[in-house]
Amino acid sequence: HSIANYQLMFRHLFFAKHVERMLVGTWLDHQVIKEYQSLRNTLGKTYFLRQRMLHFMQNFVYYMQFEVIEPNWHQMEKELLGREVADDTETDRPEGTRGCSKQRTVDDVLKRHKEFVQKTLNECLLSNRDLIRTLTKLMTTCLLFSDQMKLFMETTQIVSKG
């Protein structure tokens, strides 16, 4: 069950990173187009749309990585080690055991891990099928836009100088 949840979480994260990367590629293409004044005015709305998509994707990826996964991981680590913030300064215990207040059983570890996975899935908006579908549609739309802009660049034979 945990493996399926990890697959969902990280496939979603990697898909979001892929979409972000494709939109960055579109941004680079737009930098080339800006050199052509006649196209610049015509394609102004695509610049705006690309920027909004890129802004959303960058913030969404940042949120999942640094506002959800990383803090939840650190919280789980802290709970498993029985560590309080002040315990990091302990010097009377051997290295590697500082901050450990009690022994943990395998069941304790599994329980904490399950809580971590569930909390992370919920906060990454992956516990509701409708939200997953909506996020996937948003990201797919971003990919379609990026693909169409790439096709435009290829068919108009606009290439980067350099």
Q: Describe it for me?
A:
It contains 5 helices and no strands. It has helices at 2-33, 37-42, 44-81, 106-123, 129-155. By secondary structure, the chain is mainly α.
Strand content: under 5%
| Distance N to C terminus | 50 Å
Seen as an oligomer or otherwise, the chain set is: single chain
The helix content is: over 70%
Structural class: mainly alpha
Radius of gyration: 23 Å
The main β sheet shows up as: none
Strand count: 0
Given the structure, what is the number of helices? 5
Unreliable stretches, pLDDT < 50, 5 or more residues?
85-90
Order of helices and strands: HHHHH
Furnish the topology, listing elements before pairings:
Layout (H helix, E strand, L loop, with lengths): L1 H32 L3 H6 L1 H38 L24 H18 L5 H27 L7
Helix pairs in contact: 1-3, 1-4, 1-5, 3-4, 3-5
Q: What keyword list fits this structure?
A:
162 residues; mainly alpha; 5 helices; elongated
Brief summary of the model shown:
With 162 residues, the chain is mostly helical. It has helices spanning 2-33, 37-42, 44-81, 106-123, 129-155.
